[in-house]
Amino acid sequence: MNEKLLTIRDLTVKYTVEKVVSYAVNGISLSLNKGEILALVGETGAGKTTTALSLMGLLPRYTAKLNGEIIFKGKNIMGIGEDEYRKIRGREISMIFQDPMTSLNPVFRVGEQISDVLRIHNKDMNPREIQEACDKLLDQVGIPPSRKDEYPHQFSGGMKQRIMIAIAIACKPDLLIADEPTTALDVTIQAQVVKLMRTLQKELGSSVIMITHDLGLVANFCDNVAVMYAGEIVEYGSLEEIFDKSRAHHPYTNGLFGSLPNIMEKADRLTPIFGLTPHPSELPEGCKFHPRCPECTEVCKKGDVPVWVNGGHRIQCHLVFGRMGDE
Ligand code: SF4
Q1: Residue among 285, 288, 289, 308 to mutate when testing ligand 1 (max atoms within 8 A of CB)
Q2: pLDDT under 50 in the chain at which residues?
Q3: For residue 305, which atom of ligand 1 is closest to its CA?
Q4: Which atom of ligand 1 is nearest to the CA of 293?
Q5: What is the reported pTM?
Q6: Residue with CA at minimum distance from ligand 1 atom 3
Q7: Is the C-alpha dihedral spanning 114, 117, 118, 124 positive or negative?
Q8: What are the chain's domains?
Q9: What pLDDT was estimated at residue 93?
Q10: Cα(321) to centroid(ligand 1), Å
Q11: What is the 3-state secondary structure (H, E, C) of the chain?
Q12: pLDDT by residue (tens digit) across 14-73?
């Protein structure tokens, strides 16, 4: 479990479209061990999906500019050519996208779509072996293999997401990225899909990056949590560290938890986070959370923000650094 699979160092991604520069990811660093499940948590526009697409080599090459390092299995894959990326994508790193309704190709049978991935990445498999592997994958995700000749529209939303999972795990990837995999599903189907993902992750031993804003899903599924805001990781820690209310937290993390109903506590109202995430082309100076932060002081409005570190727990905040810095 302590063997490193992925290290991201000081990753920045900016997009330039019609001379407007958007700073989507602003110097994030993290690492992932083999078999570890990491949650990337934050609101829409926090840079979670851009981070994932950077790992997949799927950002538009002409508008997105990346800097930093992405060390995957000991090799820096930042900026490698498309041919090299094709060998990694699907085979070593694969992704389950948010919306199964639009991620499957409507004009191909689901069995063909699974078999294609197997065929591309396993040149030595013969057609019979590919069919057997396809049947096994469908079986693993709880879909009768007899339905492999049907088209995506013949399946429910939950079943389509299971097919997407079958495609993503077809080559037993070392790293599986799941981008809001349950958002488009209703609650009971969400629970089934999460249970399936947990079972498969244990069977395959893959590492997982789970992108979500669902803290319930994080609590049930993940080992470590990175809280992202405006393209930065503002807090990072183990599940226990992030969910333990008695510990210090970033005001944004407190805001995320304050926005959730808690059946264990009596409260008349929830306390949502005031305001909106800034647009990546108009990020504020200083702490990027300062226009929304109830604890903001003058020092927060300019310059770099210090990071308080306690073992693996990190919080980027003047207030926490000032209060806890000497502990
Ligand atoms: Fe709030 Fe200041 Fe901490 Fe930013 S640095 S989160 S504005 S207290």
Answers
A1: 289
A2: none
A3: 5
A4: 1
A5: 0.91
A6: 317
A7: positive
A8: 4-92+171-324 (3.40.50.300)
A9: 95
A10: 10
A11: CCCEEEEEEEEEEEEEECCEEEEEEEEEEEEEECCCEEEEECCCCCCHHHHHHHHHCCCCCCCEEEEEEEEECCEECCCCCHHHHHHHECCCEEEECCCHHHHCCCCCCHHHHHHHHHHHHCCCCCHHHHHHHHHHHHHHCCCCHHHCCCCHHHCCHHHHHHHHHHHHHCCCCCEEEEECCCCCCCHHHHHHHHHHHHHHHHHHCCEEEEEECCHHHHHHHCCEEEEEECCEEEEEEEHHHHHCCCCCCCHHHHHHHHCCCCCCCCCCCCCCCCCCCCCCCCCCCCCCCHHHCCCCCHHHHCCCCCEEEECCEEEECHHHHHHHCCC
A12: 999 999 999 999 999 999 999 999 999 998 889 999 999 999 999 998 899 999 999 999
Residue list, ligand 1 pocket, CB within 6 Å: 250-251, 287, 289-290, 293, 295-296, 300, 305, 317-319
